[in-house]
What we know:
The complex is a heterodimer.
Chain A: E1 5-7, E2 10-13, E3 19-24, E4 31-37, E5 44-50, E6 53-57, E7 65-68, E8 75-79, E9 88-95, E10 106-107, E11 111-115
Parallel strand pairs in A: 2-11
Antiparallel strand pairs in A: 1-3, 3-8, 4-5, 4-9, 5-6, 7-8, 9-10, 9-11
Chain B: E1 3-6, E2 11-14, E3 19-26, E4 32-38, E5 45-51, E6 56-59, E7 62-67, E8 72-77, E9 86-92, E10 106-111
Parallel strand pairs in B: 2-10
Antiparallel strand pairs in B: 1-3, 3-8, 4-5, 4-9, 6-7, 7-8, 9-10
Amino acid sequence: EPEVTQTPSHQVTQMGQEVILRCVPISNHLYFYWYRQILGQKVEFLVSFYNNEISEKSEIFDDQFSVERPDGSNFTLKIRSTKLEDSAMYFCASSARQGAGGTEAFFGQGTRLTVV
Amino acid sequence: SQKIEQNSEALNIQEGKTATLTCNYTNYSPAYLQWYRQDPGRGPVFLLLIRENEKEKRKERLKVTFDTTLKQSLFHITASQPADSATYLCAPDSGGYQKVTFGTGTKLQVIP
């Protein structure tokens, strides 16, 4: 069964360092997302990406964050200068389509980012 | 602004009983609503999607209802098993946007 894969599963970084979280969405999907979940809190939307551009972003997704689809398979989230409060589980997701009918999103297993 | 409310308190039920979880939403009228399951340290997994013109949807031991008048969805697990223990997330659609927006989730614990 197709799945979304994320690497690494766990990343520890020093405050102020740049990190890149990587994702391989399901191959025929068109919409890509990043979410984060701080320990014990809800899953929060960060950004959605379609047709090689950001289609929506939340207040959390400030100038420190960027996303990229550098080739036909990978989808990355970059945090330019990490802060302690960026410590969280980051989930990548993809979906086949969007529209009034709705469609489910498929989530990866997450990357646990720890900023020290 | 749009608001999604799920009971933040954990729900403990005896194995074999029916678990019922509630999702209330305010300030908008979603065209559909999704339910996901999340296990600790794992990503959400899609379970069911119900559209506004559907009153009820079933999948094996799962049943979802969608009451657009009450602005509420109920999620039922019949004949619950310890393996059903997880956090269940409600996600009404975001008004035409692509993202899935989750409620806080309700943690279900099925006691053997």
